[in-house]
């Protein structure tokens, strides 16, 4: 049994890292900067006055494939974001849309494209090394 307050899964994709409210997603889509790759369209919005953790919203169209394929793409993008969380600066909202070509892509390809978009807009936290 775990003691209260301890987290058995410290690297999980937490609710505070999810973009849930419709207004937040629409704001990121409307005013966020866009970066298009061969498999993804990434919208990034930086809230300068915010110290909130980075948040991710996903838009996976039925054009990507059936539900099994869409969920696989969704899980891969979410995992790539989760693994990148410690390196992303606070205050960033990301909305990631998958193109139909994402259905045939690997996790490494999606992760590299997400990292490319984050690097393009300087969303990486400055390291203290």
Number of helices: 3
Structural class: alpha+beta
Number of DSSP E strands: 4
Uncertain ranges: none
Described by the principal axes of the CA atoms, the overall outline is globular
Q: In whole angstroms, how far apart are the ends?
A: 37 Å
Mean pLDDT across all amino acids:
89
The strand line-up of the biggest sheet is 1-2-4-3
Could you characterize what this model shows?
This protein is α+β, with helices and mostly antiparallel strands and 129 residues long. It is 33% helix and 19% strand. It contains 3 helices and 4 strands. A 4-stranded mixed sheet has the order 1-2-4-3, sandwiched between helices. Helix 2 links the parallel strand 3 and strand 4. Helix 2 crosses helix 3. The longest helix is centred in the middle third of the chain and has 18 residues, at 67-84.
What descriptors fit this protein?
four-stranded mixed β-sheet, 129 residues
Kindly summarize this structure in a few lines.
The protein is of the alpha+beta class and 129 residues long. 33% of the residues lie in helices and 19% in strands.
What does the secondary structure layout of this molecule look like, with pairings?
Blueprint: H1 22-31, E1 33-36, E2 40-46, E3 55-60, H2 67-84, E4 92-98, H3 107-120
Parallel strand pairs: 3-4
Antiparallel strand pairs: 1-2, 2-4
Helix pairs in contact: 2-3
